[in-house]
Amino acid sequence: MTPHTLEVLEFFRIAEIIAGYCKSEEARERCLQKRPLQDAGEIAAAKELGRDILSFLQADEPLPIKNLPPLNSVLKQLHTAGVCLTIEELYAAGLLALQVDELKTWAIKQKRTDSAACTLIESIPPLPQTEQAVFSFIDKNGALRDIPSLTAIRKKMQRIEADIEKTMRSYCTDESTKGMLQTPAPVLRNGRQVIAVRSNFKGRIKGIIHEYSQSGQSFYLEPESIVLRNNELMRAQAEYEQELHRLLVSISSKLADEAEALEQAYRLVLELDCAAAAARWAYTENGVFVPDTGNTQYFYLQAARHPLLGTAAVPIDLKLTPEERILIITGPNTGGKTVSLKTAALFVLLNQTGWPVLAGEETRLPVFRYVGCAIGDEQSLDRSLSTFSAYMRTVGELLEAADEESLILLDELGSGTDPQEGGALAMAILDELFVRRSCVFVTSHHGVLKNYAYRKSGCVNASVSFDEATLRPSYRILMGIPGESRAVDIAEKNGLSPDVIRAARAYMADSSADAAALIKGLMEKHEQLAVFEREKDETEKALREKQRRFDLNALKLRQKEQVLRSQGYKRLNDLFEQKRNEIENLVREIQEGELTHEKTSKLKQFFADFGQMLAEEQTDIRNEQEELSALQQALRNREQEQGGGKPANGMSATGAPVSEILTEGMEVFIPHLHRRGVIIRKEKKNWLVAVDTVKMTFPADKLEPLNLSGIAPLRTPQVVVEAELHKESRPELELRLLGMRLDEAEKHLQNQLDLALMHNMREFSIVHGKGKGVLQTMVHEKLAAAPYIAEFFFARPEHGGTGKTIVRLW
Description:
Blueprint: H1 3-8, H2 11-19, H3 25-32, H4 40-58, H5 72-77, H6 87-110, H7 116-123, H8 128-135, H9 148-173, E1 187-189, E2 192-198, E3 207-212, E4 218-223, H10 224-257, H11 259-285, E5 299-304, E6 316-320, E7 326-330, H12 337-352, E8 370-374, H13 387-401, E9 406-410, H14 419-435, E10 439-443, H15 447-455, E11 459-467, E12 472-479, H16 487-493, H17 498-509, H18 515-592, H19 597-641, E13 667-670, E14 675-683, E15 686-691, E16 694-699, E17 704-705, H20 706-709, E18 734-736, H21 742-758, E19 763-767, H22 774-785, E20 789-794, E21 804-809
Parallel strand pairs: 7-10, 7-11, 8-9, 9-10, 18-19
Antiparallel strand pairs: 1-2, 2-4, 3-4, 5-6, 11-12, 13-14, 13-17, 14-15, 15-16, 19-21, 20-21
Helix pairs in contact: 2-3, 3-11, 4-11, 6-7, 6-8, 6-11, 9-10, 14-15, 16-17, 18-19, 21-22
């Protein structure tokens, strides 16, 4: 990545924006020095750290990073023997130690072992010796504490100063001397207190003259009685400075013992600050850290917005599969072709720096070893190069550097010279880049390149769309079709003479090849293809649903058959067990006495009854088999005629009234809620049913017995928890789960779903944030498992994007 490429793609301007989110000045400087990386592992680690910090921001748990004073110069001094840091420098080191403590406390509170930020914080060495040494000397505000040795000297200085002040005041108040003074208060000269005496009173007061005034009317005199006290004060001040220096050297030596730990801690804290700055930018601008694509060269921009365009940016989509290497973008001037090129390449640079991009979460970007561009007018007067010559020189340099790990941008390729020669040269350049397997983005107005993209395998056409009504570009990218330059329409819109416009259209009508008509036809085909694909998707969806219903019915039949067979076996087994016991009793009675006529009659009657009972059981089983066959035929007929609908209300699958089949403990299906439940008991004409955590009452015609329709009954819960929902409780239009623990968020979500059902709410939204996706995954799994949810999907980017889910109930 050359400085020229970074400059042209405005990478440095984005770096300045992100650096502005740093807390410390040295972190800002470090952020400005960052450059795109080439090692996939380093890139992934940087993005993982930023993505993790972003998740904490979205959960309203930001890292407690503070503004630290610059420490680089301080850390360098610690390697010098006998170093003596100033109070301000010691305070800066102490603030770093406090910052490390605060970060470690925060990381412990999070209790997350999968957090990249917490892992990095754990690797920061603690600085207990630095913290204890610094803040035993100064307080948390940077003020000097009461050190006994310094306090004693300071009190001594205060006593001397009081004596000097008292003596000096006597000269200013004594009637015999105050008339001699030029000013009524003492002043400082060379750190010593003196009085200003008028020149005509020279010699009247004994002492040392320090200097004369410029006018010569007065001189500054240190009275003899003050000289000794001033000398004592200066000695005390020197003693204070010596003691302070001794203490500073002692504390500095303790910091020097932790010099390596201080340097490592400072480096990691600055790294956290830089990563947090990128995360704050992503949080503010709704950006994303692009997931890794591995070794695949899959290039996809979803709803990409150039950071420097702000709210004026129109989201664009660009896509190149690993088999496609060249994208040729055509279309009208000022349509956004060059901006699209710059956006794509800039996002590659930001991604490889470990920074987020302003795009959708489906965006995927490969890792490139080299990014080169030929964009803009690079005419050079001092080198006698024309615009075309300068452009070709740049393209030549790109060709030398290009390989399969390169991204090459060529803006207005083939322009600036004869169109026929320029088109031929452009195709030859693209052929060479295709051989080198480079990823290439090209903009052009040459019709020959549009045709080249259709003929060349691995080459894709795209265009910037144009509004036919307003004759203005819409700045959106249409993949798969070329675009028209629309030069005449744009010239007419910008006020060119109608006569000139008519002449231009006449020349266009006489041209041998009507490329515009061809492109227009292609656009119509493209729209028809889009409609066909939508219809095909809907048809496939309907077929999948019909197949699902058919498979479900087949499963019901198999389960029903198994249930009937097991019930028949059980009845026969119970019958034989009962009759075996009766035979044993009869045999016992016969053995205990004589064989009488009564006993013989009783035995004959037993066998007669047994035979009749067997016949009845066989009849029942035959009836059940006929009933199963009728059910199978009914399901087949329903599948053919109605597509697998449900039985008529109030009737079971066998045709019997549902009210006669329902029993306590039976699992049922509630069609209008699309939910399952278990019958608890009958209450008058209705049935009390446990639905999840809620008890609800339904009439019999609103229930379908699942174990009779063939679905294996779920295990009846032994304990049913009845949720007491207050009558005034209502569901929220927007449920916010940010900052909640997982179990707490799941509880709030279930409560919202129950309330929505009770109050017949059909739509609401859930704000769960992005981040690591823990809350998002829980929400979507919960919604997917709920049968009464019609659909759920992410909100539009401007309304929260993937941090917010819209829910619709049946």
